[in-house]
Amino acid sequence: MTPSSGTLHILGVGPGDPELVTLRAARILARAPAYAFFAVRGRPGHAFTIATPHLNRAAAALRFEYPYTTEISVEDGRYAAGMAAFYEDCAATLAGRLGAGEDVALLCEGDPFLYGSAMYLFDRLRPRFPVEVTPGITAMSGCWSRALAPMVHGDDILSVLPATMPAEELAAALRRCDAAVVMKLGRNLPKLRAVLDRLGLTARALYAERGTMPGEVILPLAERDDSPAPYFSLVLVPGRQGAR
Fold this sequence. Notes:
The protein has helices at 23-31, 46-51, 77-99, 118-125, 139-146, 167-175, 189-199, and strands at 8-12, 34-39, 60-65, 104-108, 131-134, 158-162, 179-183, 206-209, 217-220, 233-237. By secondary structure, it is α/β, with parallel strands linked by helices.
């Protein structure tokens, strides 16, 4: 890290609505000489789409395209190796600009330190370059706000759980909390529904898809069928019920 190094600005840009980008993130985007974002092959990139109204049009754009998403199972050894190589390449690209004294804004949907791909570049670049992180509104908070669903009161315990957990582990985790956000639904919706039914929680559960984005769907989980859920979806299980 040298005095002439550029600064990596990791920016949380929220869950989907461009109006939920913070004033700080918008200010940094407006002046950054370069910005970087992750994208799935053939798609514009969710963080890029959110940030578009706030971008410096003269800035250099660095698109980091994932080598794969669902094409290879995460249990396949090739997945971890391929993704590690991808993040190394991304970090090297950013290091070239940072080392030349140029600031770069790295866009991250939601909040960078909550399941964000930006963390993998943070780990690689933080020892060598100045890094500043701007928090963003999370997908879960965007969804519970749109659902008008107060989640935790007083000393309620909130858990964030992946639906990919085995059913018994998922049930045990739900028993230990008062409120929950369940992510990574995909084809796990029938399993999650069965667990919630067994625990008597289905009536409280809400399904949220593309919260704060065009095409938003929010409804009681009991009204959602068991077809696979898209990537931008989650289930909310609010905590204490009634006025306080």
